[in-house]
């Protein structure tokens, strides 16, 4: 089907599309299920990768991997845990959430770099700017098929979360947002295992 559009038919569907995206996909789900899907809130999450020509944090500052927790709008700076004292390296210049992620996401990629570097220089000094080679940033809440880094449920006991744990006819919903480990791959695996087990039991019972 790559590159082509067309209908696909099947006995069952396991839908792992993030609810922030799914809410805008036309469907014949019941109104309560549509409302439950729309209830999920996408969390604003941002990161920037800063590629350096020289690993000054290792050579000059004896920082070998790990994270600096800042009180700046960067939130955290992450250092690579590979290739120690090698030639080049990429630092995560910010990994932030909520209001800080939204602030950066409103900027152009070039402005994000300028702001992140100006902030990081307060910690690492001039090399943080002079050794920079290239950069790449992502705002997950503004990424078309994500619409959020992960899901935040306003409540998980108000009915919506529980409803999506049940199949809607022949459609099952799965993903880390339907587990106790949101924002972790283990949550997606837990959810997948639950749904596949339920589907397996159902098919065996109706065979
Ligand atoms: C910045 C960040 C850092 C993270 N760090 C970690 C970590 O260190 N460790 C960890 O365990 N987890 C981490 N996670 C979480 C991990 O990525 C998720 O838990 C996992 O990817 C969830 O898997 P999923 O299958 O539920 O959803 P996803 O991986 O989000 O898969 C959903 C898929 O649906 C696709 N899709 C969207 N719309 C449509 C459509 N209309 N039609 C068809 N397909 C569609 C998307 O393109 C996507 O491929 C991180 C997440 C983020 C954003």
Helix-strand makeup class: alpha+beta
Number of helices: 8
Number of domains: 2
Order of strands side by side in the largest beta sheet? Answer: 6-3-7
Give helix % range: 25-40%
The total of beta strands comes to: 9
- Which compounds are bound in this model? flavin-adenine dinucleotide
**Which class of the largest domain in CATH terms?**
Alpha Beta
CATH structural fold name of the largest domain? Polyamine Oxidase, Chain A, domain 2
Main sheet summary: 3 strands, antiparallel
| SSE ordering | EHHEEHEEEHHHEEHEH
Fold and architecture overview:
With 207 residues, this protein is an alpha+beta fold. The protein has 2 domains: 82 residues, 3-Layer(bba) Sandwich (FAD/NAD(P)-binding domain), CATH 3.50.50; 98 residues, Alpha-Beta Complex (Polyamine Oxidase, Chain A, domain 2), CATH 3.90.660. Helix content is 35%, strand content 21%. The chain has 8 helices and 9 strands. Strands 6-3-7 form a 3-stranded antiparallel β-sheet. Strands 1-9 form a two-stranded parallel sheet. Strands 2-8 form a two-stranded antiparallel sheet. A hairpin with a 6-residue loop joins strand 4 and strand 5. The chain is elongated. The two termini are 29 Å apart. Bound molecules: flavin-adenine dinucleotide (FAD).
């Amino acid at each position: 089907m790559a590159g082509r559009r067309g209908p696909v038919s099947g006995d069952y569907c396991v839908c792992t599309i993030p609810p922030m995206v799914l809410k805008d996909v036309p469907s014949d789900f019941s109104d309560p299920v549509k409302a439950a899907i729309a209830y999920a809130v996408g969390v604003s999450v941002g990161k920037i990768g800063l590629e350096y020509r020289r690993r000054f944090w290792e050579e000059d500052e004896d920082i070998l991997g790990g994270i600096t927790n800042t009180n700046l709008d960067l939130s955290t700076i992450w250092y690579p845990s590979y290739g120690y004292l090698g030639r080049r390296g990429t630092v995560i210049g910010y990994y932030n959430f909520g209001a800080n992620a939204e602030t950066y996401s409103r900027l152009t990629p070039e402005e994000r770099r300028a702001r992140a570097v100006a902030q990081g220089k307060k910690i690492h000094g001039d090399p943080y700017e002079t050794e920079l080679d290239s950069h790449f940033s992502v705002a997950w809440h503004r990424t078309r098929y994500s619409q959020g880094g992960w899901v935040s449920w306003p409540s998980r006991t108000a009915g919506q979360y529980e409803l999506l744990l049940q199949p809607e006819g022949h459609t099952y919903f799965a993903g880390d947002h339907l587990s106790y480990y949101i924002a972790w791959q283990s949550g997606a695996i837990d959810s997948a295992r639950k749904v596949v087990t339920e589907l397996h039991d159902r098919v065996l019972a109706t065979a």
